[in-house]
Each structure stands twice: as C-alpha cells, then as structure tokens.
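thread: overnight batch results

M.L. [08:02]
morning all. the overnight job finished for the chain we discussed friday. pasting input first so we're all looking at the same thing
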Amino acid sequence: MGVRKRQSAEMIKEARKSQSFAKLRNVPTSPRKMRLVADMVRGQEVFKALGILKFSNKEAAQRVEKLLRSAIANWEQKNERKAEQGELFITTIFVDCAPMLKRLRPAPQGRGYRIRKRSNHVTLFVDTKDNNAKA
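M.L. [08:03]
and the structure it wrote out:
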C-alpha cells in the first residue's frame, strides 16, 4: 500500500472512531427490497424510526430494526449515557450489493434458466442533531 493511501485510510479510521454506526452484512434479500425499507427511515428520529419499522409488514424491516438498535447501543457505549427521546437521528443509511449466488433451474427442452439469489450489505449511522449542524 502506498504512503498516501495508507495515510488517507488512517484518517478515515480515526474519523470513524468518533461516529456511531452499525453494519449488517450478507443479508439474503435483494438490495432493491432493502432500499425500500431504508428509504422509509432515512433522516428520521431513531425512536420514531423504530416505531415505523416495528409496524412495517416488510420482512427487511425486522433486520433494519435490529441494526438500528445496535447503532443506538453503539452510540450509548461511546457517549456513556442513554439516548433520550428526540436526541438521536439516522444521519446516513445505505444499502450496497453483496455477492450473489448463481443457481440453475431446470427449464423445458433441456435448457437451464439462471437464478440469481441476491444479497446486500446495510450500513447505518446515527448522531445527534447538533453534531450534524457542525459537520
């Protein structure tokens, strides 16, 4: 690894130490379905987002709810206090593609249709409103 690349990687690593986030990797649902759920809670206050996810009928909402609880716990651990109502917000949430499993399904006349079983990675950042204004 080059010197500049190593320095920028270390700067990014130092910046991440002050941020509270959680990652969910290799979720076996398609990224498109997960993005629908991520769009529902983007920018919301965390306790309001937990309510939205709790009563959503999408399967991906359960996984994002668990991820959000983890991000809140990470924030509480770093700040050594409990999160209060209206204090924490979801600053960033994004869904990336993960490796997909490629399978073949038998088809008529000796053919095989390809099935792509998609998966995704979800990253969620939480922070207070006043920290967002500073950045």
